[in-house]
DNA 3'-5' helicase
Amino acid sequence: MSELLAGLNNEQLRAVTWPAKSALVLAGAGSGKTRVLTTRIAWLIATGQVNPSGILAVTFTNKAAREMHTRLGAMVPVNVRTMWIGTFHGLCNRFLRAHYRDAGLPQAFQILDSADQQAAIKRLLKSLELSDEKYPPRAVQSFINGNKEAGLRADRLPPALNPYEAKLVELYAAYDAQCRREGVVDFAELLLRSYELLQANAALRAHYQGRFRHILVDEFQDTNRLQYAWLKLLSGEHNVLFAVGDDDQSIYAFRGAEVGNMRALLSDFQVAEPVRLEQNYRSVGTILNAANALIERNDGRLGKNLWTDAGEGEQIRLYEAYSDGDEAQFIIDEVKNLQREGMNLSDMAILYRSNAQSRVLEHVLVNAQLPYRIYGGLRFFERQEVKHALAYLRLVSNPDDDNALLRVINVPARGIGARTVENLQAISREQGVTLWQACCAAGGGRTAAKLGEFVLLIEALRNKSSAMTLAETVSLIIDHSGLRAMYEQDKKEGEERLANLDELVSAAAGFFPDQPELAIVEFLSAASLEAGEHQAEAGEDALQLMTVHAAKGLEFDAVFVSGLEEGLFPHENSMNDSKGLEEERRLMYVAVTRARKRLYLSCAQSRMLHGQSRYPIRSRFVEEIPAELVRVLSATVKPVPQASPRRAPWLEEASAPASTMSLQGFRIGQGVSHAKFGAGVVINAEGSGNDVRLQINFAEHGLKWLDLRYAKLTAEQ
Ligand SMILES: Nc1ncnc2c1ncn2[C@@H]1O[C@H](COP(=O)(O)OP(=O)(O)OP(=O)(O)O)[C@@H](O)[C@H]1O
Ligand SMILES: [Mg+2]
């Protein structure tokens, strides 16, 4: 026992050994909240206060859940599988699988991830003959999910304000009906369905309230209304809700998270005072000071102090690159230096605000031959080839899954064209049958023969797979569906896609279902639920790349926060309102506090994003960090109104200036003007022909590199 509690500070100890009543631990980044939560579970079990089956713990990612399992396994000698530890979605999935009948679901119900859901909505719009320009599927999707997360079904919504909204409500109802017909549920539905079932079924509710004596929630600041209501319902009158969180790290308000749940918990669960942890064990002083200085600018915080006894550590490094490519190169060079100094690649992370930023980084990483893994982005289970294979697997499990059928009916191409598919959809609509049933009933003719072959293929896969293991089934599907042959012919990307398909077989081989007869179903739901986390798992030492959102709760020795530019971070959508900006600042706080020892900040003076080039200015968040904490690495100079035409000494290492002849009419030393940056002087150049970049010293905006293909520059004569 004493071993379990060894090393905890007094406040942590108080939280871990809190009596059997509800509590809120409110504390800043790196103060040990997650550690306290895990240790409390171990302590409750070790002291015999609860059986493992009496524990329900909610984590923010599946990865965090697995880590908690592993830690607990090492701390207390119990079968950790009997504990319910997982994300809200994972736990609701487990609950609905156990009670599918009461929930009105087929036993093999499938989970739609966000992309599947969008496809389902597109299909619905088409069947109702509504244009997706007028009703963008994304907008319909967020309308549906927003309402589900608020606990509202279509028939319980307040009267629509206008005909457009009325149509959205209709679409919501029609979408739910379509999902019911096809036996599928989306992410938000997992929660809402569980909540409704618990609420409607008193016996079930009593059972679970009796079972889960201790409910523990990590990252509580990011729970939404429905999740909070679900927790409240499960905890009943007597059970204990132990929540840990940090209002300064609430970064999902855009998805309905309510930091107000923290205040609600205090009153709903009669918690007199939150427990506060103030010592940070993660970061050196400089990093912590920077984080504190940043977050102090937000209003309405619950207020916290954080200190560390880890010493000041090194200064934060700031690099201002002239382009995104240069930024990426700088980062990768630093990564290599750190690696040479003995740091593992897996202890370093590159963080960015938007997934699109990873492309340039990946490009440089591939050239440098550094192994890396991306969390999020194009996720393993979202890759085209993997989704194709999973669609076949879905059909093997349930041929009435229309989404899956549409995805692969003509992949690989087997002569079933768009017209045929439209006919099938019309039959399905008119006769109220699934597409599979429509396929099976197709009459004579050439097209029907093609459909017949497809039906035979799926049936053969179903028959053969019934006596096979999961991995064998996946392998069979890849070979017999024609996917393997198709990718073998693809000279460009085939090799990588085949490797991913093989990886899928390995994933299936390493999957241990709770109920072997439901292996396929369980594997498919795990694939939907774990999208985005698989890649960053096992394997060789690799650099970690992810969005700041995905980095929540994690820590690394060295962290690179890239793209610190106005419009990118803070994101342009957030810049016009103070709430949005404060959420961005919390996001920056999360980014900075991921670092243990070394923190790099970087930005670029020009960036290609979504096919457009931009010339951004440095993020305000960089300016908000006290200057004495930062060491500037790039050659930044103050603007000089009358720049000398000679090459400046700090540019000695830059590439040699192109000859004045090839600069598309510009020359070094020439006065120029730019629509956004105003007047300046050309001081350096690189490239030739059409691909020329000029470095210009603008009187008001300082040094910039501009690409002449995109920049509109006028020469002063
Ligand atoms: N008492 C302690 N002694 C030594 N190390 C500790 C102690 N408490 C926590 N740590 C370590 O500090 C680091 C941060 O802890 P943890 O991840 O639990 O913080 P957190 O509050 O959950 O952070 P975040 O807000 O980012 O999720 C971890 O490496 C953890 O093992
Ligand atoms: Mg944590």
